[in-house]
C-alpha cells in the first residue's frame, strides 16, 4: 500500500462516519455508520481519541469508501456485477435465532445468497455452516468479531480474516472467496491481509437499513428499491448481534417482495459467486488512487456505509 490519506481526510472521517444519525444518512450505501451499533460509537470515540497521526499508520483513503468513485474505479469492490444480476448478501450471522428462518424463506423462494459471517458467531453455531452450504449458499468472511478494522493494526487485522477463513474452510471444506469488513470500513492492513489470504473485498450498492429498531419489511423495501438495478449488490443482515434486538425480522419479511420486484424487472437474484464482478481501472487489491482524488474527492455526504 503506497497511498495514505491526508490528515484532513482522517479527521473528517473520524468526525462524520460514526456519529451521523441513521435517519439522516442520505441514500442507501452513501454513509458509513450504523445506528444502534455500539461498535460504531466506540469507533468514533476511539478514532477521535487516537488522533489522525496514529490512524495514518494504517488508514486507507476515503476514496476507497466513496461510493461514486468506488463504483467507477473499483466496480468489483463496490459489488458491481453482471447487468442482469443482483447479488444478495447477508452480514453478521450465522445466528441460531434467526439464520434458520432466512434459510427457510430463501428455500421457499428458490434463492441462494452470500453470507458474510463473523467467526465468533460461526464458532457458536457451526452446524449452520453445513446447512447453508448444502442449500447452495456461499459463506464469506466478515471478520472474527465486529470491531472496525480501522482500529486494528495489520497483525490483528490479518488474524481476524485468517481465523474466520480457516473456520469456514474447516466447516465447509471450501475456502471462502470474498470478504467484507465490519461497517464497510477499509484499512490498508485489511486490504493487504485480504490479498495475502486470496480474499476479494466486496462492499455493496444498496442496503435495507434493516438494523434499526424501527425497521419493518416496508421500510427495508423502501430503502432498497431506489438503488435496485442490475449489477448491484444488496446488503441485509441475518442476525441482530450488532443491530437493534429483533431487527432481522424486517429483512426477513422483505425478502419475498424484494425477490418479486427483482423478478418483475428481469433481474436474477443470487450469490456473489454468480454475480460476475467486474474488475476496474484500479487494481482491486492495490488501491493507488491519484493524489487529486485523495485530496479533492467528494465530501463525506457522498461516501458509503458499513
Ligand atoms: Zn456487520
Automatic annotation (TrEMBL):
GO biological process: carbohydrate metabolic process
Span of domain NodB homology: 84-270
Region Disordered: start-end pairs: 278-306
Gene Ontology molecular function: any one: hydrolase activity, acting on carbon-nitrogen (but not peptide) bonds
PROSITE patterns the record matches: NODB
InterPro entries recorded: Glyco_hydro/deAcase_b/a-brl (IPR011330), NODB_dom (IPR002509), Polysacc_deacetylase_ArnD (IPR050248)
Record CDD domains: CE4_NodB_like_3
Pfam families registered for this protein in UniProt: Polysacc_deac_1
Protein name as catalogued: Polysaccharide deacetylase
Amino acid at each position: 500500500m503506497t497511498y495514505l490519506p491526508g490528515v484532513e481526510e482522517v479527521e473528517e472521517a473520524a468526525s462524520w462516519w460514526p456519529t451521523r444519525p441513521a435517519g439522516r444518512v442520505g441514500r442507501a450505501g452513501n454513509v458509513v455508520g450504523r445506528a444502534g451499533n455500539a461498535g460504531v460509537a466506540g469507533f468514533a470515540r476511539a478514532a477521535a481519541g487516537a488522533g489522525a497521526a496514529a490512524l495514518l499508520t494504517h488508514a486507507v483513503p476515503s476514496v476507497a469508501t466513496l461510493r461514486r468513485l468506488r463504483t467507477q474505479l473499483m466496480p468489483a469492490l463496490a459489488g458491481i456485477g453482471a447487468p442482469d444480476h443482483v447479488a444478495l448478501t447477508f452480514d453478521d450471522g450465522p445466528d441460531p435465532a434467526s439464520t434458520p428462518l432466512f434459510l427457510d424463506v430463501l428455500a421457499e423462494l428458490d434463492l441462494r445468497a452470500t453470507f458474510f459471517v463473523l467467526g465468533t458467531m460461526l464458532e457458536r453455531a457451526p452446524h449452520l455452516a453445513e446447512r447453508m452450504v448444502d442449500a447452495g449458499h456461499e459463506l464469506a468472511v466478515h471478520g472474527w468479531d465486529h470491531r472496525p478494522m480501522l482500529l486494528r493494526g495489520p497483525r490483528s487485522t490479518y488474524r481476524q480474516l485468517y481465523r474466520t477463513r480457516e473456520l469456514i474452510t474447516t466447516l465447509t471444506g471450501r475456502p471462502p472467496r470474498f470478504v467484507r469488513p465490519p461497517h464497510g470500513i477499509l484499512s490498508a492492513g485489511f486490504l493487504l491481509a485480504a490479498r495475502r489470504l486470496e480474499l476479494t473485498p466486496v462492499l455493496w450498492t444498496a442496503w435495507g437499513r434493516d438494523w434499526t429498531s424501527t425497521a419493518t419489511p416496508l421500510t427495508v423495501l423502501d430503502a432498497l428499491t431506489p438503488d435496485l438495478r442490475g449489477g448491484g449488490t444488496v446488503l441485509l443482515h441475518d442476525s441482530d448481534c450488532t443491530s437493534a434486538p429483533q431487527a432481522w425480522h424486517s429483512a426477513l419479511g422483505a425478502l419475498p417482495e424484494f425477490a418479486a420486484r427483482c423478478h418483475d424487472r428481469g433481474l436474477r437474484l443470487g450469490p456473489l459467486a454468480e454475480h460476475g464482478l467486474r474488475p476496474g481501472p484500479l487494481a482491486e487489491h492495490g488501491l493507488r488512487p491519484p493524489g487529486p482524488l485523495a485530496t479533492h474527492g467528494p465530501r463525506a455526504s457522498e461516501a458509503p456505509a458499513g
